User: What shape does this take?
Amino acid sequence: MAKKVHVETTINGEAREFLAEPRQSLLESLRDVLYMTGTKEGCNDGNCGACSVLLDGVLVNSCCVLGVEAQGRTVETVEGLGTTDKLHPLQQAFIEETGMQCGICTPGFLMASKSLLQSNPSPSEEEVRLWLAGNLCRCTGYDKLVRAVLKAGKAMEAA
Assistant: This one.
C-alpha cells in the first residue's frame, strides 16, 4: 500500500482535511474517505459526467482528477448547492421540469449547469445542449434537463 498524503482543501466553503492514496481519484476521496456520496460514479473514465464537480470554479470529472490535486484548492459538489429548506434554483427547476429519474446523472448535470450559468447567465437552448454534451442520461432524454437549466437561468437572473 502506498503512503497516504495529507490533503487540506475547501469543500463547499468548509475547510476539510483527508488522507488520500496518491493514485486515488477525487471521486473516490469524496465518496469513500469523506463520505460525501452526492457525487456519483458512472463510467469512471471521464465519459459520462456523473461525477462532475467544480475545482477552483472549473467543471471537471472528479474520476479523472487525483484526490491529492485538491490540495490548497476549492471543490464544489452537489451537496453545496442548496439545503432542504432552501433549494438552489437549479434544484428547484430540475424538480419542476422533472429533469431527473434514476438520479445517477443528476448531480453531474446540476454541477455542469451551475458552471454554465455562472459563465453565461442566459444561455440559448443550443448553448445549454452543447454545454451539457459531456453529461449522459439514459433515462430522461435531454429536453426536460434543458428546460430546467433555461428556467433556472431565468430565475437566477430575476433574483
Summary: The radius of gyration is 16 Å. The helical segments are 26-33, 89-96, 106-119, 125-131, 143-158.
